[in-house]
């Protein structure tokens, strides 16, 4: 896009890219609209550029002050804005269809939190095949997922609506005789399954099982997507489409760079939402997050991201291995903040429990908030 633009347009394109790097959800069509709006306005002043950006890039009300700070820093040369909740390191996003050019992030020293930390630590992981009984889960998954009514229709003999076009065609071909009415009804299709897997150090004991579960889900469901997150976001769906599990997990292990490192859950989920191609996977999906939700520091980004995911997904579930302890209660500030937007908060400490839960997604269940209030 930038190669075909005149040099004078480069600063405006650069501003849009700056906002996307800071997790603003901006689609390519909005950037095109921004450039067109500037063309129509002249512009006669810097305020015209600001108004065009507000109208086309449409920052949400809760991020308006952050938008204004970035605008002044970029166009007026003010100091780089200090935004509450912003991480020192930019969240890297990696799609398994290709990699992006990345820079070595600065390490940040923190006190405490032996297992849960925001410090990035890059390492590799090797998986071996073992028997775990996921074959039955793979075979049952497609039929067990909840369904939605598609806009596509199919012919039916009963319980449908009149197919007027085909009925009129039949009348004409029958020289005016009125045949039996022809009917159509909307098809029912399974909802998408989206798995977000925490690969940080605090989840080290469960990551291998979660990846095996993800491979079975991709093999068993027509539309399943899998991402890993820690200090980076990586899409590994294509790797898991390899039928042989050992090869698939080896390919996934090579794709993910942040095994067993720190976690920046809120910023990483906001990065997921900032990429339109990724956030579209969550629309109308059954979203299952496999994480302990141990967010370090301020949890404002996590709460914002979970609210946005809840608005997009048909069902938002958090499976945490901490719930395997009978004494577990959602008592951390982060869990208390996101509990009202969760449909499910379940035990993620065993493969058997996880597969049973995913196979039950098609059945109605009380909201997580009401269940855990009774337990507490």
TrEMBL record:
For this protein, the record's SUPFAM superfamilies field holds:
vWA-like (SSF53300)
Q: What is this protein called?
A: VWA containing CoxE family protein
Tell me which InterPro entries the record gives: UCP010256, Uncharacterised_CoxE, vWFA_dom_sf
Q: Region (Disordered) spans which residues?
A: 81-128
For this protein's source organism, the top of the classification is: Bacteria, Pseudomonadati, Pseudomonadota, Alphaproteobacteria, Hyphomicrobiales
Classification via Pfam families: VWA_CoxE
- Point to the regions of Basic and acidic residues compositional bias: 91-113
Record field: compositional bias (Polar residues): 116-125
């Amino acid at each position: 896009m930038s190669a075909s633009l005149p040099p004078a347009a480069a600063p405006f394109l650069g501003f849009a890219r700056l906002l996307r790097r800071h997790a603003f959800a901006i689609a390519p069509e909005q950037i095109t609209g921004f450039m067109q709006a500037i063309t129509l306005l002249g512009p006669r002043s810097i305020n015209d550029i600001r108004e065009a950006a507000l109208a086309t890039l449409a920052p949400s009300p809760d991020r308006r002050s952050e938008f204004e700070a970035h605008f002044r820093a970029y166009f007026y040369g003010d100091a780089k804005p200090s935004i509450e909740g912003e991480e020192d390191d930019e969240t890297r996003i990696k799609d398994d269809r290709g990699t992006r050019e990345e820079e070595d992030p600065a390490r940040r020293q923190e006190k405490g939190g032996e297992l849960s930390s925001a410090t990035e630590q890059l390492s590799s992981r090797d998986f071996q095949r073992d028997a775990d009984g996921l074959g039955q889960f793979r075979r049952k998954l497609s039929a067990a997922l909840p369904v939605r009514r598609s806009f596509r229709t199919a012919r039916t003999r009963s319980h449908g609506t009149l197919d007027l076009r085909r009925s009129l065609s039949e009348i004409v071909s029958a020289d005016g005789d009125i045949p039996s009415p022809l009917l159509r009804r909307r098809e029912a299709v399974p909802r998408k399954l989206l798995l977000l897997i925490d690969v940080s150090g605090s989840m080290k004991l469960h990551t291998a099982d979660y990846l095996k579960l993800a491979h079975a889900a991709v093999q068993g469901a027509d539309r399943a997507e899998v991402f890993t997150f820690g200090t980076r976001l990586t899409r590994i769906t294509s790797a898991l489409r390899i039928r042989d599990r050992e090869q698939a997990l080896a390919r996934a292990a090579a794709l993910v760079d942040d095994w067993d490192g720190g976690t920046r859950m809120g910023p990483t989920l906001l990065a997921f939402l900032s990429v339109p191609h990724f956030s579209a996977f969550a629309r109308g999906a059954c979203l299952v997050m496999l994480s302990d939700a141990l967010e370090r520091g301020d949890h404002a980004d996590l709460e914002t991201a979970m609210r946005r995911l809840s608005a997009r997904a048909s069902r938002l579930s958090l499976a945490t291995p901490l719930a395997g302890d009978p004494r577990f209660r959602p008592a951390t500030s982060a869990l208390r903040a996101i509990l009202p937007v969760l449909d499910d908060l379940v035990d993620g400490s065993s493969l058997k429990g996880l597969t049973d839960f995913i196979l039950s997604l098609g059945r109605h269940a009380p909201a997580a908030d009401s269940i855990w209030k009774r337990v507490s």
